[in-house]
């Protein structure tokens, strides 16, 4: 037989095998679908079971947090009274202990002081001090009487200076003359004026003309029952 005659015979078995393979494929697809459908309800059931469990766990977590917070609150409430008690004890101790004395005494209000100065007075400081040492602690009237009866030329300068101090107190500080006393009265040395006079055998003798600066301070009289304070 020729090769052309054999071909139709050989094609018949191949044609029979093709329908069988297609049938097997359809059966496999049907089985896969059936298995998928059977597995889907199982998965749904598993998910449905997991969801309540997760919800229960989430519900348990806030409950546990609430319990922990409730346990912490009593502890904090216990600590607060303990702190208050410690603060009260410290306050009681501080009250019971005497206050520590500081090295510096509390500053007292200083009395007003009125000053008057006389500069370049033509007298020596030594002669001026011989008069002014009687004035401190005296009232204005007593100081006037002392100066009026002092037989020295410098007493006139001191009298003028005393009147100037009284006028300053009355006009500038609104103080009364009857309430004033002499707080200080002192004399400082001023510049010395130097002159010369001729002497025998062509020599020159120096002449020293002394000057002084006088100061008087007045202050209000202290109230009765208080100590004298000259500072």
Tell me what you see in this structure.
- The protein has 231 residues and is an alpha+beta fold.
- It has a domain at 114-220: Ribosomal protein L22/L17 (Ribosomal Protein L22, Chain A).
- The protein has helices at 3-96, 125-132, 140-148, 154-172, and strands spanning 114-121, 180-189, 193-198, 204-209, 212-220.
- Strand 3 and strand 4 form a beta hairpin.
- The longest helix is centred in the N-terminal third of the chain and has 94 residues, at 3-96.
- The radius of gyration is 61 Å and the shape is elongated.
- The termini are far apart.
- The relative contact order is 0.10.
Write a concise keyword list for the protein shown above.
alpha+beta; 4 helices; 3-stranded antiparallel sheet; 5 strands; about 230 residues; Ribosomal Protein L22, Chain A; disordered N terminus; two-stranded antiparallel sheet
